[in-house]
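Incident log, entry 3
Record: Exocyst complex component 3-like protein isoform X3 (707 residues)
Problem: checksum mismatch between cached and fresh output.
Input:
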Amino acid sequence: MDSATKDEMQPSLPPGSSCPGPEWPEQERAEQLARGAALKWASGIFYRPEQLARLGQYRSREVQRTCSLEARIKSVVQSYLEGVKTGVWQLAQAFEAVQGTREALDQAHGLLQGMVEATETLKPLREQVAQHKQLQVLSQLLPRLRAVPAAVAHTRTLIGAQRLLEAYVCLRELEQLQEETWAPLGGLELPVFEGLGPLAEALGQAVEAAAGVAGQLAREDPALLVAAVRVAEVDARHTTSLELPPRDWRRRCLQALQEGLERTHFGTPLLLEPGALAGWLEALRVALPAELATAEALVAPCCPPHYKVVRLWAHTLHSGLRRCLQQLLEGPKLGAADAFALLHWTLHVYLGPEMMGSLELGPEADVSQLEPLLTPENIEQLEAMFVTQIQVNVAQWLQKALDGEVAEWNREQEPGTDSSGFYHSPLPAIVLQILEENIRVTSLVSESLQRRVHGMALSELGTFLRSSSLSVLQPDGAGSGDLALVEAGLDELQRRICRLVLEELLAELQPLFEALPSRRWLSSPELLDDVCERTVRFCQDFRRVRNPAVQLLLAEAERTVVLQYLRALMQGRLVCRGADERIQAAQRLQNDAAQLRELFLGLGLEESVQCAPVLLSLRDLLNLRDPMLLGLEVAGLRQKFPDVSEDHVSALLDLRGDVSREQRLAALSSLQAGPQPSLSAGQRALFSLVPVPTPALSSCLPSGPCA
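Fresh output:
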């Protein structure tokens, strides 16, 4: 195909269009590859001479193939060019449409600008139209608007006359008229309606006032109470288009019911005189159940069921009483009687069948959800307050009773006796009876208070002698250890009393013991006979004392005699001149011990508690023949009587009269040898109560207390 034919076959392109030319790198590369492949094929086909004869056939076949390919390429290119032409035409049409739309929009914008200007010119006209409509509404409502001031005054009159339902109807009519004028006037508030807000508040206050005395109205004027509640309920369901704050008369009505109830019973501050709290609590015991009965029988029928009047009454009274009691406890300290009355009333009476636990109080009261009137801290405070003041009162009473008892026993006449002839005082029985009664009364309140008062009673009993009636104060199941402290104090007090009683005996015996020991004492028992005679005469009055007090008196008397005997021996009034006098002294100690033993056995003192056997131990020390063995004897004495000292042993060695300095030091050294003994359980000190004159330094150990 020549070049002219090829030029005729090229499609005509619109101006501005382009197609890929031979300058494309891909086209050149494709042509090079095609030429290379053709040369390779031709060199392979025509490599041998016999193949050249068929060259014409090959040429004709390739020409056909080339024509076919060109035809196919032309068809494809033509199709492509037609699609491009169509697209260009469509773009041109779209451009023309966009241009038309832009022109239309410009025209619309101009029209709108004209309409805005026209609207601005119509604004005064619109205002006049609105004013015309308002004037039209006002002209229609003018007769009713003129009657508003009179209606407001009439409504106030109705409120003052407590005609609450009629007043509420008038108020709603006025508010409805206000709504009818509010929307057409565009929310404009007319001055004629300025009094509606205070008028509605006055009606709300009237409703609150009626609810605040609901109990009284339920008895005297239930219609007024019903009217107040109905006004509050109807207004709670009312809706309005006016932009007014909610009145919430239902909540205010319920709040007024509660505040009025609390004000009736707990409105005034509780300022009671000491001891007057019980009367106030008794008044509440009567008033609160009556108030609940009134609520159930009279107030509840006047109110809607959802008010739950009985429950409201019960919980309001409870919370008011609880708050009142808290204020009471935060004030001045209560007396013992008031504290006890408050504890008993709150823990037993208030929850008992006469009040909140009454069977007549139905389940609608819901008393199971009530909080305790007193917290555990309040109960602890009241119990401590009660016990402290009771302890002060008991201590004062006991002191007065003891003063009276002392005055009674100091009279010139003989004390009273019981049917058996023993001296008798009713004071211990009276004291125990009073303390027992206090403990028994506190059991009506709580176990914790009873335990506190019981402990107080035991501590106060430390000032009285123990008696067989003391067991009535011991709670069931309590161990004997609970009374150990009291018993120890009572024992010590009894011994002190015994010492006071025996001071007279001691004054009589001291002059007699001034002559002991002596040469006369060695040869005659007259000195101890005088001691025994005066002791027997003094102890004759003990026959009117019951056991175990008489045993204690006799034991202390015998102990007093023995101590005076030992005191006399330690004074160094006698020094034995030889073995014969030492034997006499030892024998005298044995005889005196036997005489004292028989004396107090005859008076009724048990032998196991007597102190006279100490004289037998001293006898052994004097009766020892070999002074070299004194160390063993002194060690044995120390084992029996751990409180014997070097001074006591030195005084006894001086009484022997035959102990050299070396023997004395050896004997005293035995006191320091080995472990030092101590008083056994139940053993009382003896030698430590006996004073000894200060010995000479030559008779002391270098490490002894007298060195």
